[in-house]
Amino acid sequence: MPRALMFDLDDTLYPERRYLLSGFVAVSAHVEARFGVARGDGFRTLVRVARQGGRGHAFQALCETFDLDPEIVPELVDVMRAHRPRLRLPDDCRRMLEQVRRQWRLAILTNGLPRVQARKIAALGLDVFVDRVIFACEYGDGRGKPDPAAFRAALMALDVPAERAVFAGNDPWCDVAGARRAGLWTVRIRRGVFARADMTEASEADLVVSTLSEIPDAAEALVEYAAQYVH
Asked: What does pTM read for this prediction?
């Protein structure tokens, strides 16, 4: 019988901070062209605020620092979302995907605006490794993961039953809890902002790993366990 291995995108298959930095470069260039703020100064401000935990307010901080009208923040958000990201697929991710695609049906199931996520996937070259890319917000309540409808749509797209499917992601709530509600096996990779998050019983995965290279063996173990003990 076929089996499926599904992945979250951001902070699972690549570090999302790389996208953030790419977007900051684009926004800084835009602010220089439109408002005369040196792009280096703008970029350093955005990075500083993000590193201090203010990622969600970085554009507001940029406006405050350089006395720009805060009404331009939506314009800067649009620049960020529309830019063509400069990303490179990490070597460990490439090796892992090359290993598993010979034995599994593969999908990426990602939250976020489809047009933004599609640009990331294209920049990383991930489409050549997976069978399907699924944008979670297009299913169920429209908010994406953890809505089980998104995971069920991925199962249907790959034509694999839930008991033979594994979802790997870094977010204990959107990725793990959502996949479990849809009946999938789960692997959590300790990465990104959730690396040290406290788990509840509902949000902890069946297996937890620290590196992408551990995912193939973890997924194999879960599906083998299901074949032997779950009926």
From this structure: 0.92
